[in-house]
Here is the input.
Amino acid sequence: MEQDSNSSTPVEPGVDTRAADAPRRSPLSFTLYWLRDLALSVVIAIAVILFLYQPVKVEGTSMMPSLSDQERIFINKFTYRFGISEVLRGDLVVFWFPGDTNKSYIKRVIGLPGDTVEVNAGKVLLNGVQLAEGYVPDGYRDSLFLPPMRVPEDHYFVMGDHRSASNDSRSWGPLHRRYIYGKAVFVYWPIDRMGVLR
Here is the structure.
């Protein structure tokens, strides 16, 4: 049969001719695309760090052994602010010290609004029941007493894990919610301590 002169050349089924027709990308073009993607990734990472997370340095020993002096950590600044998460018992919160808002502290949340907190010879009783605190080794405890205290609305009872070296709610009372500005989430320095804070 005579082939129509206006018809296209027959193509073998399953063969894509577009790849052969497409121009090959030069090494320079490939490098520019790669650098563009890298720059975009860096910009996104910086934006996340600046606007969602903040690097801070731990100063002091009040949170040992969970956090050591001079460790570098990231705090999440928005998890509480926008209601992504409530402040929970056990959270490591970063806050402006009520007695001097030029200073910021990091402590562990022990009591929530409405809880009754008591300390008996260094042992914490929460609503009349001794709190299991595996994060406080025996060598870091003290023998203080604190009569039962009810945590007011919008307040939190916070304590350092190194009980004998911590200035916390046992000394200056429950912490108002408005002073809390972040949650400690990740240790990034030193390398051997790197990891998520739980």
The two ends are 78 Å apart (CA to CA). The chain has one domain: 56-196.
